[in-house]
């Protein structure tokens, strides 16, 4: 049944979500049974994070995804061709192991001193006093007063003292610190290569496994994308390359807006504007765009939404379900499944291009005529109705000329729309609207009697 108006906060969405859902795989969520539930909850793209795991590990995940896809192949409702995305490691800066463990965490308190060491002897000996980083040039690209963000900005440090191979920092924003966390240096001229050796080998692996797309991290310029394409080679020429925008292109097939890292590299209050601008640029360039801010991503016309940490750990299944529900509601807010509105928009566009003499609208409630009048076109609108109230209210809108049909023979209306259209044309006795040889008028009609069913634009001739 057609909706009579726009979606409200409490109304049920009129259509299924059309936005795609990307979800990062993790040891806890990559089993066949768990993947079944993730696909049922709406997952379209399974993302393989190559910052972690070996090629052998990812082969198992790929096998499981394809197994589940085949299981659903005979189900017309649940079946969908789940895509595989390879998320490259990129030129990341990471911390070492906390007390030689991948699971132990230490607490960093605000105001405490934390010494950053580059000597590999501390790689597995990090604690609340010492933190090892794998970026050897950090002392060259930072200054006293520089900010260092750890674990997607959850922990903030400020440089207080510099040495040849160490930094003394003060904890500005503390919290629990685990092993192998990412590090950001906002404003620093980091000289890491945009495409590492791993980023060359991993896409080659992706070609062997026939993945659908490659997410490239920290891409700065078109030549970085060309390096990835070169690694994909001739066999991988059809694999899509999606560039993750994370700091300060036409070469990419699409863009991923990584809001978390973006919020570290530029002021947080500017992230929403940067996201809107990038999504707008991508839409104009015809590029696919992926975002992780679910509702606003849909409202901004993103093509795909990605869950990373939410499905890599924690309640991944519930996160996926919630992602689908939010997108469903967000799409309903902009797709008003309203044939009357769509038809009137089309009629206005046609009238403008054809320079026709008039628009005839057959209406019961007057809504269709009001919708057409919103656009203030040159062509007059002749609204034919059997409702005296509707005829009178038509005068509230500029450009509408109501025609009240009182003939009981025409009560069925939509069953013989020619009678209604002819009535409109016969009323024009003075020839104010129609003259022989004029451009043909348009007629807006419905598929059945009643209000809210206008769905057809028809061209009629002037005899």
TrEMBL record:
<comment type="similarity">
    <text>Belongs to the pyruvate kinase family.</text>
</comment>
<dbReference type="GO" id="GO:0030955">
    <property type="term" value="F:potassium ion binding"/>
</dbReference>
<keyword id="KW-0067">ATP-binding</keyword>
<dbReference type="GO" id="GO:0005524">
    <property type="term" value="F:ATP binding"/>
</dbReference>
<dbReference type="InterPro" id="IPR015793">
    <property type="entry name" value="Pyrv_Knase_brl"/>
</dbReference>
<dbReference type="InterPro" id="IPR015795">
    <property type="entry name" value="Pyrv_Knase_C"/>
</dbReference>
<dbReference type="InterPro" id="IPR011037">
    <property type="entry name" value="Pyrv_Knase-like_insert_dom_sf"/>
</dbReference>
<keyword id="KW-0547">Nucleotide-binding</keyword>
<dbReference type="InterPro" id="IPR001697">
    <property type="entry name" value="Pyr_Knase"/>
</dbReference>
<dbReference type="Pfam" id="PF00224">
    <property type="entry name" value="PK"/>
</dbReference>
<keyword id="KW-0021">Allosteric enzyme</keyword>
<comment type="pathway">
    <text>Carbohydrate degradation; glycolysis; pyruvate from D-glyceraldehyde 3-phosphate: step 5/5.</text>
</comment>
<feature type="domain" description="Pyruvate kinase barrel">
    <location>
        <begin position="23"/>
        <end position="291"/>
    </location>
</feature>
<dbReference type="GO" id="GO:0000287">
    <property type="term" value="F:magnesium ion binding"/>
</dbReference>
<dbReference type="InterPro" id="IPR040442">
    <property type="entry name" value="Pyrv_kinase-like_dom_sf"/>
</dbReference>
<keyword id="KW-0460">Magnesium</keyword>
<keyword id="KW-0808">Transferase</keyword>
<keyword id="KW-0324">Glycolysis</keyword>
<keyword id="KW-0479">Metal-binding</keyword>
<keyword id="KW-0418">Kinase</keyword>
<protein>
    <recommendedName>
        <fullName>Pyruvate kinase</fullName>
        <ecNumber>2.7.1.40</ecNumber>
    </recommendedName>
</protein>
<feature type="compositionally biased region" description="Polar residues">
    <location>
        <begin position="1"/>
        <end position="10"/>
    </location>
</feature>
<dbReference type="Pfam" id="PF02887">
    <property type="entry name" value="PK_C"/>
</dbReference>
<dbReference type="GO" id="GO:0016301">
    <property type="term" value="F:kinase activity"/>
</dbReference>
<dbReference type="GO" id="GO:0004743">
    <property type="term" value="F:pyruvate kinase activity"/>
</dbReference>
<dbReference type="InterPro" id="IPR015813">
    <property type="entry name" value="Pyrv/PenolPyrv_kinase-like_dom"/>
</dbReference>
<feature type="region of interest" description="Disordered">
    <location>
        <begin position="1"/>
        <end position="29"/>
    </location>
</feature>
<keyword id="KW-0670">Pyruvate</keyword>
<feature type="domain" description="Pyruvate kinase C-terminal">
    <location>
        <begin position="343"/>
        <end position="460"/>
    </location>
</feature>
<dbReference type="InterPro" id="IPR036918">
    <property type="entry name" value="Pyrv_Knase_C_sf"/>
</dbReference>
<dbReference type="InterPro" id="IPR015806">
    <property type="entry name" value="Pyrv_Knase_insert_dom_sf"/>
</dbReference>
């Amino acid at each position: 049944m057609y909706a009579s108006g726009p979606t409200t906060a409490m109304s049920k969405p009129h259509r299924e979500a059309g936005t795609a859902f990307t979800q990062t795989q993790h040891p806890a969520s990559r089993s066949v049974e768990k993947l079944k539930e993730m696909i049922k909850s709406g997952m379209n793209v399974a993302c393989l994070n190559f910052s972690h795991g070996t090629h052998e590990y990812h082969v198992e995940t790929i096998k499981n995804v394809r197994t589940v896809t085949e299981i659903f192949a005979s189900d017309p409702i649940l079946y969908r061709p789940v895509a595989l995305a390879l998320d490259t490691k990129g030129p990341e800066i990471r911390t070492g192991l906390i007390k030689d463990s991948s699971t132990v965490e230490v607490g960093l308190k605000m105001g405490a001193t934390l010494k950053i060491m580059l000597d590999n002897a501390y790689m597995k000996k990090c604690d609340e006093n010492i933190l090892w980083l794998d970026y050897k040039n950090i002392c060259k690209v930072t200054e006293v007063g520089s900010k260092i963000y750890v674990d997607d900005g959850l922990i903030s440090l400020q440089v207080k003292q510099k040495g040849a191979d160490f930094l003394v920092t003060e904890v500005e924003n503390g919290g629990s610190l685990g092993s192998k966390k990412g590090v950001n240096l906002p404003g620093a001229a980091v000289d890491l290569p945009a495409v590492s050796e791993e980023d060359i080998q991993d896409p080659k692996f992706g070609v062997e496994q026939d993945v659908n797309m490659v997410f490239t991290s920290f891409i700065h310029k078109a030549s970085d994308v060309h390096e990835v394409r070169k690694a994909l080679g001739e066999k991988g020429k059809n694999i899509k390359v999606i560039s993750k925008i994370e700091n300060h292109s036409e070469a990419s097939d699409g863009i991923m807006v990584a809001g978390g890292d973006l919020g570290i590299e530029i002021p947080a209050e500017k992230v929403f504007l940067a996201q809107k601008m990038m999504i707008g640029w991508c839409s104009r360039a015809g590029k696919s765009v992926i975002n992780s801010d679910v509702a606003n991503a849909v409202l901004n016309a993103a093509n795909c939404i990605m869950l990373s940490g939410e499905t890599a750990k924690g309640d991944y299944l519930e996160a996926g379900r919630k992602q689908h529900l939010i997108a469903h509601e967000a799409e309903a807010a902009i797709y008003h499944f309203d044939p009357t509105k769509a038809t009137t928009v089309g009629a206005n566009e046609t009238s403008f291009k054809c320079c026709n003499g008039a628009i005839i609208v057959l209406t019961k409630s007057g809504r269709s005529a009001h919708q057409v009048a919103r656009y203030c076109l040159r062509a007059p609108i002749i609204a034919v109705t059997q409702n005296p109230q509707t005829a009178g209210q038509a005068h509230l809108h500029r450009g509408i000329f109501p025609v009240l049909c009182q003939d009981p023979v025409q009560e069925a209306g939509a069953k013989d729309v020619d009678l209604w259209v002819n009535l409109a044309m016969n009323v024009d006795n003075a020839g104010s609207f129609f003259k022989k040889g004029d451009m043909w008028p348009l007629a807006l009609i419905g598929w059945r009697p009643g209000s809210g069913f206008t769905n057809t634009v028809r061209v009629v001739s002037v005899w």
